[in-house]
């Protein structure tokens, strides 16, 4: 595609993402009351998007994928991921120095680490645009092979930017599990800040809230967490591109219209992101694919040997019981039960800070696997059935992208079985 035309597409779609950022906050008295506690910490999407546009224009000018050989691209990308790993290690070391009560003067003790970290971050700023352009090109090639193109090009073009991600303030009613609000806040909020905002919102509005971390956000260019895990990175970039793909079609346009449509969006993006991400790894980095999971062998436990802890199944059981209690109007009992189960998960190595209605409202929408926080919600199962019944990823996405209700999904899966 000619660069000038590519620029126009980027700028038009980026402008659209700015409008979408504003539209994430529909007018409403409850929302404004919530924002009284969150407004000072809300994420600046406009500033971020304008910065990301500049990065994307720099990438286009570099034309790295056109001037570098496949082996050179591989080495640059792997070098960049190693750089990200070293930055993570340096930041962890820095945190340890400031947290260690035996260190009397952390500013002096951390001087060398801070100097090294500054050098590493400067190198990341230089290498990041090239590494991102390589990943974008590789995913674009696979997306084209899968038939998800218009005029031979993915639409929208695959564009992402690695960045510290906003956190998300999720708000649900106490009486039912339902995501009513999702407000983006600044990255890296401390536990104290999260707890303070959640308590203020819960007490003022009698709701359930939780501030969660996310792996990506489907604005344009998409926001993706910085990570040294190439398999995960490919999956997340692909997942967020699928959201961009859907946003140009009815299912994505109606993302916020109902909890059912949100679950359909997220589950479809998760399933497609996994398949696209794995296809990219198989084509360009087959030696770095994780080994397949070992075959399950069911062996009876000895009389003194407890069964292995199954997080997904235990979380499914928890969600099912909570749904039953809430449906019976036993809100306080449901909340006591969730706290009891949170302690149970903690004792088994899963350190959940809070387990409440907002937790399930957020995590329950990602239903690409059975069980877990979705409980027995049939929506995820219906999306998975459509995925299995489809002849290809292309046919799956093109079918679900034009759906506007859960009833359409059920009708489609039932007709495929007949």
Keywords:
disordered N terminus, 17 helices, 3-stranded antiparallel beta sheet, 418 residues, mainly alpha, 6 strands
Task: Output the structural class.
Answer: mainly alpha
Helix content: 55-70%
Termini separation comes to 43 Å
**C-alpha Rg (nearest Å):** 23 Å
- The overall average pLDDT, rounded, is 88
Report the sheet with the most strands, covering strand number, pairing sense and barrel closure: 3 strands, mixed
Give unreliable regions as ranges. 1-5, 18-25
The number of E-state strands comes to 6
- How many helix segments? 17
Which strand order spans the largest sheet, edge to edge or round the barrel? Answer: 1-6-5
Order of helices and strands: HHHHHHHEEEHEEEHHHHHHHHH
Strand content: 5-15%
Assign an overall shape.
globular
What does this structure look like?
The chain has 418 residues and is mostly helical. Helix content is 62%, strand content 6%. It has helices spanning 3-23, 29-38, 45-62, 64-67, 70-99, 106-109, 111-145, 191-205, 230-247, 250-253, 259-284, 311-327, 331-347, 357-363, 378-389, 393-400, 406-417; strands at 160-162, 167-173, 181-185, 207-212, 216-217, 222-224. The strands form two sheets. Strands 1-6-5 form a three-stranded mixed sheet, sandwiched between helices. A three-stranded antiparallel sheet has the order 3-2-4. A hairpin with a 4-residue loop joins strand 5 (216-217) and strand 6. It is globular and about 65 Å long.
């Amino acid at each position: 595609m000619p660069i000038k035309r590519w620029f126009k597409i980027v700028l038009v779609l980026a402008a659209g993402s700015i409008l979408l950022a504003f539209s994430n906050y529909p007018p409403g008295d409850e929302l404004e009351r919530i924002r009284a506690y969150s407004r000072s910490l809300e994420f600046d999407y406009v500033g971020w998007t304008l910065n990301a546009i500049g990065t994307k224009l720099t990438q286009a000018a570099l034309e790295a994928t056109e001037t570098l050989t496949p082996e050179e691209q591989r080495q640059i990308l792997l070098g960049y991921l190693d750089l990200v790993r070293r930055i993570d290690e340096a930041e962890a070391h820095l945190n340890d120095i400031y947290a260690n009560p035996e260190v009397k003067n952390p500013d002096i003790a951390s001087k060398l680490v801070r100097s090294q970290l500054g050098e590493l971050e400067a190198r990341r700023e230089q290498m990041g645009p090239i590494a991102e352009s390589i990943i974008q090109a590789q995913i674009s090639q696979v997306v084209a092979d899968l038939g998800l193109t218009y005029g031979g090009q993915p639409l929208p073009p695959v564009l992402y930017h690695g960045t510290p991600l906003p956190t998300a303030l999720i708000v649900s009613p106490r009486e039912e599990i339902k995501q009513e609000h999702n407000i983006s806040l600044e990255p890296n909020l401390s536990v104290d800040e999260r707890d303070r905002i959640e308590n203020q919102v819960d007490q003022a509005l009698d709701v359930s809230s939780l501030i969660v971390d996310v792996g990506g956000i489907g604005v344009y260019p998409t926001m993706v967490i910085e990570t040294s895990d190439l398999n995960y990175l490919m999956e997340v970039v692909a997942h967020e591109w699928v959201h961009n793909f859907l946003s140009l079609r009815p299912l994505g346009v109606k993302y916020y219209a109902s909890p059912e449509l949100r679950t359909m969006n997220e589950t479809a993006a998760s399933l497609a992101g996994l398949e696209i991400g794995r296809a990219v790894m198989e084509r360009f980095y087959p030696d770095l694919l994780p080994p397949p999971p070992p075959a399950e062998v069911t062996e009876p436990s000895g009389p003194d040997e407890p069964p292995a802890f199954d997080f997904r199944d235990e979380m499914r059981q928890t969600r099912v019981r909570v749904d039953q209690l809430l449906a019976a109007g036993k809100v306080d009992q449901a909340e006591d039960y969730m706290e009891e189960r949170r302690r149970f998960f903690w004792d088994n190595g899963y350190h959940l800070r809070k387990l409440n209605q907002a937790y399930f409202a957020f995590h329950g929408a990602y239903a690409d696997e059975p069980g877990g926080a979705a409980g027995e919600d049939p929506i995820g199962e219906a999306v998975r059935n459509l995925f299995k019944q489809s002849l290809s990823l292309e046919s799956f996405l093109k079918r679900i992208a034009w759906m506007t209700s859960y009833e359409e999904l059920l009708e489609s899966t039932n007709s495929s079985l007949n």
